[in-house]
Amino acid sequence: MATLTVLYGPPADADAFRSHYEEKHLPLAQALPGARDLTYAIGVTTLAGEPVHASFRATFDSVADLEAALGSPEGQAAQADVPAFADGGVTILVEP
After folding, report:
1. Entry pTM
2. In this predicted model, what pLDDT tens digit does every residue of 34-62 receive, in sequence order?
């Protein structure tokens, strides 16, 4: 199993972030081929105080499946949408 985790830094406009994320970006992420157990949270805090505003997590059967999903048309569309709402920066983690 492989896990994709995306951490979003604090945006300039939290309400605009939430609106775009839930209405436009999340449906793109939910269309990733092979993705399951998708979860997200907005208003995230960390124990060490790092600036994180939101998170997304999805699991895949393997790293190869995760990479194929990101390279798919659905994955490309999701990645292309990120600059439209994530002005606080993005960290993408892949856990094998």
Report:
1. 0.93
2. 999 999 999 998 898 889 999 999 999 99
d(CA 31, CA 57): 13
Contacts of 18 (CB under 8 A, 6+ apart): 42
Find the Cα–Cα–Cα–Cα dihedral 20, 31, 59, 70, rounded to 10°: -90
Domains of the chain: 2-95 (3.30.70.100)
Residue 74 · residue 31 · CB < 8 Å: yes
